[in-house]
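Need a sequence for this fold. Nothing fancy.
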């Protein structure tokens, strides 16, 4: 094994130390949220909690199952967010895959013009009020409207189109010689060879749906609000000094508990998707 000289050794020590410190720092918000959620009311409101919990209790989490003030609207919003994320991601991926596949074809009629109009939406926006009025006129005022109205993002179409352009044309020509249709070519050639890109775009759409806030808050009724809107309401209640509730825990603890509960699906799903992305990179990384 080749021995490292002094300068390389110092560089590696510094680099690994900085990366380790950065990794630890990214965990601090999660650790603090859990600690603040389960700490006593006095400890949280006096600012004593910095890392580990003080006089821990799980009463705040029980409130999300037993307290009528927050439990019902929290879990309704949770269900709404799962609905938006699951069906919205499926719908968005379907549109994006077909659009990217069509735009990757050199013989597509008016290909340059279509590409220009798609990219143009990334450069220019009509503004909030015209966009809001347009959404209302289109009837985007319910859960299905949110899914259809925010179906695709131009960046994701361009990203997937560029990856489809890198797929070996020889493999596609061989499939055509074998009598494969366009749908069969997409299903059997392009999609299997683009797993990493598909996983990445799926992650982008899923996170966008999961974090949906502004337009969901403005366009749909309170019973169809996603989790992020309710989280904002809980955080606002925690900072409202005029609001007096007879709880054994702080409202700040309630807001942190809501945050912890809201990220559980992401913590569960992301490692699985990350593994899938790694497999996709290995599968699509070598092309003829």
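Here you go.
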């Amino acid at each position: 094994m080749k021995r490292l000289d002094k300068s390389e050794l110092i560089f590696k020590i510094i680099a690994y130390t900085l990366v380790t410190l950065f990794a630890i720092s990214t965990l601090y918000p999660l650790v603090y949220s859990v600690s603040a959620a389960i700490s006593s009311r006095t400890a949280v409101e006096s600012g004593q909690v910095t890392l580990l919990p003080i006089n821990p209790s799980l009463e705040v989490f029980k409130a999300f199952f037993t307290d009528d003030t927050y439990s019902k609207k929290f879990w309704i919003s949770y269900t709404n967010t799962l609905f938006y994320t699951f069906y919205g991601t499926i719908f968005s991926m379907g549109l994006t895959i077909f659009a990217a596949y069509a735009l990757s074809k050199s013989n597509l009629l008016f290909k340059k013009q279509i590409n220009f109009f798609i990219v143009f939406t990334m450069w220019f926006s009509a503004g909030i009020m015209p966009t809001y009025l347009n959404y209302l006129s289109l009837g985007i005022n319910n859960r299905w409207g949110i899914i259809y109205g925010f179906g695709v993002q131009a960046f994701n179409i361009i990203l997937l189109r560029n990856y489809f352009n890198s797929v070996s044309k020889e493999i596609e020509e061989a499939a055509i010689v074998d009598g494969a249709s366009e749908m069969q070519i997409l299903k059997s050639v392009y999609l299997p060879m683009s797993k990493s890109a598909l996983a990445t775009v799926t992650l982008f759409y899923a996170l966008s749906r999961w974090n949906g806030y502004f337009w969901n808050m403005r366009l749909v009724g309170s019973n169809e609000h996603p989790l992020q809107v309710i989280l904002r309401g809980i955080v606002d209640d925690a900072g409202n000094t005029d609001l007096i509730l007879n709880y054994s825990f702080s409202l700040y603890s309630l807001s942190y508990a809501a945050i912890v509960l809201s990220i559980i699906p992401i913590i569960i799903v992301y490692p699985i998707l990350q593994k899938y992305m790694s497999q996709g990179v290995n599968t699509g990384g070598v092309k003829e």
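For context: The longest helix spans residues 251-284.
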